[in-house]
């Protein structure tokens, strides 16, 4: 994508499938911030896409027990029967959706689920509709698989949500998938049943279009928001929908690398073909840990939600107190996606004009030593994303620095 740095190295010619794709802007900013920190600068990084909680103790214990009983070999290709059963029960219990074991797949993170799904279904030139702002990996994975991301801007005024008219207009004979993510990374916006309904009606009228939903942040929602997954609202779409989820965010298990999905048997089988030649199976120990995560006590999720909500409120109100910034209150996830149109056209104390959101975030990093990610990395400008999955003390300090830095612009 054009918001990323191309891989350029003298004498090295990458394959054409990745020639136009670079290292993610988020990783670049993270690396730069980490280098500054190493040089002794007091950098605060608000870029992390992972909870600052630890994996629950019962989950760790299950992993240790798995090692001790010798669960250290290759497992079934796309998930152990025990984990598929736990996932099937989770879908029934929490989402009111029935997926049989052969309609479930497990992979090395939800990222690999997305990769397997697109590799297994997208032919060169096939279109994938992605509302923006979007999680950066979506469009890059589609492109690697030879598809064409069709990006549809969904501004703050529209709640960062796709509208039925936009979807209807974007569908062509080449549309293979529409990909929806609720609650969203980066906007935190979520679709209620009423928000989803008109979109699902559009899809019912276009039987060649499949629906991929990423429910990764399902358990991180606020203010009584009722999470619902599309297949539960419209079972007629189940035969052409892939419902993606994982343990990374809800159970603070990003490093364990387990994601999963429910979908029609034929699609699940096709995805297994890709996985069989990519990784053979997900980690045996991580699968055992995930069984415990899904079957074990869930009450701690409420406490974690309350902690995230407290931090969300702190960040949103601090951002909205800064003239020139405008932050919508997100329904879920642990990100804010704040507009920064009021900063465009201003000049930094060093005389640099802020032309784009990436200039603003560069300024925040250089002058305030706060690392945040520009909206351009997520396909929508001028905005910037803050991840508030960090301590309240760090957030308070970072927001004070951002306010001071904004006040120094002229
Ligand atoms: C919206 C969304 N989906 C999927 C993922 C990937 O999760 P996993 O760790 O399971 O690969 C992320 C991670 O940041 C995400 O933000």
TrEMBL record:
GO biological process: one example: amino acid metabolic process
Assigned EC number: 2.6.1.-
Cofactor(s) needed for function: pyridoxal 5'-phosphate
Keyword Cell wall biogenesis/degradation: no
Entry-linked InterPro entries: Aminotransferase_I/II_large, AspAT/PAT-like, NHTrfase_class1_PyrdxlP-BS, PyrdxlP-dep_Trfase, PyrdxlP-dep_Trfase_major, PyrdxlP-dep_Trfase_small
Catalytic activities: L-aspartate + 2-oxoglutarate = oxaloacetate + L-glutamate
Domain Aminotransferase class I/classII large: 43-402
Single Gene Ontology MF annotation: pyridoxal phosphate binding
Keyword entries, A-Z: Aminotransferase, Pyridoxal phosphate, Transferase
Assembly mode: Homodimer.
CDD domains: AAT_like
Entry similarity comment: Belongs to the class-I pyridoxal-phosphate-dependent aminotransferase family.
Protein name: Aminotransferase
Gene source species: Shinella sumterensis
Pfam families according to UniProt: Aminotran_1_2
């Amino acid at each position: 994508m054009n918001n990323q740095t191309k891989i350029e190295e003298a004498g090295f010619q990458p394959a054409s499938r990745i020639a136009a794709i670079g290292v993610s802007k988020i990783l670049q900013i993270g690396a730069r911030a980490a280098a500054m920190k190493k040089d002794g600068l007091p950098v605060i990084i608000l870029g992390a896409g992972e909870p600052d909680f630890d994996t629950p103790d019962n989950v760790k214990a299950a992993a240790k027990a798995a090692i001790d009983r010798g669960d250290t070999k290759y497992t079934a290709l796309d998930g152990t029967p025990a984990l598929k059963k736990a996932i099937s029960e989770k879908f029934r219990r929490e989402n009111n959706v029935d997926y049989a074991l052969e309609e479930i797949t497990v992979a090395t993170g939800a990222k690999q689920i997305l990769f397997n799904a697109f590799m297994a279904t997208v032919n060169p030139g096939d279109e994938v509709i992605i509302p923006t702002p979007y999680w950066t990996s979506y469009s890059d994975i589609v492109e690697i698989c030879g598809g064409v991301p069709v990006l549809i801007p969904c501004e703050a005024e529209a709640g960062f949500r796709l509208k039925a008219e936009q979807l209807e207009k974007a569908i062509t004979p080449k549309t293979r998938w529409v990909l929806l993510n609720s609650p969203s990374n980066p906007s935190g916006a979520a679709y209620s049943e009423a928000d989803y309904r008109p979109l699902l009606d559009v899809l019912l009228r276009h039987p060649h279009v499949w629906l991929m939903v990423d429910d990764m942040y399902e358990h991180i929602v606020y203010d009584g928001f009722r999470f619902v997954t599309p297949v539960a609202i419209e079972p007629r779409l189940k035969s052409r929908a892939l419902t993606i989820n994982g343990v990374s965010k809800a159970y603070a298990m990003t490093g364990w690398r387990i994601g999963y999905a429910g979908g029609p048997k034929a699609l699940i089988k096709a995805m297994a073909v890709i996985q069989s030649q990519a990784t053979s199976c997900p980690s045996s120990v991580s699968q055992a840990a995930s069984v415990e995560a899904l079957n074990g006590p869930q009450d701690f999720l409420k406490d974690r939600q309350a902690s995230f909500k407290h931090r969300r409120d702190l960040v949103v109100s601090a951002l909205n107190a800064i003239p020139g910034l405008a932050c919508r209150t997100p329904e879920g996830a642990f990100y804010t996606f704040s507009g920064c149109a009021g900063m465009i056209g201003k000049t930094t104390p060093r005389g640099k004009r802020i032309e784009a959101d990436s200039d603003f975030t560069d300024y925040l990093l250089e002058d305030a030593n706060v690392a945040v990610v520009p909206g351009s990395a997520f396909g929508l400008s001028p905005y910037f994303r803050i991840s508030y999955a960090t301590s309240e003390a760090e957030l308070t300090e970072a927001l004070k620095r951002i306010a001071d830095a904004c006040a120094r612009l002229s």
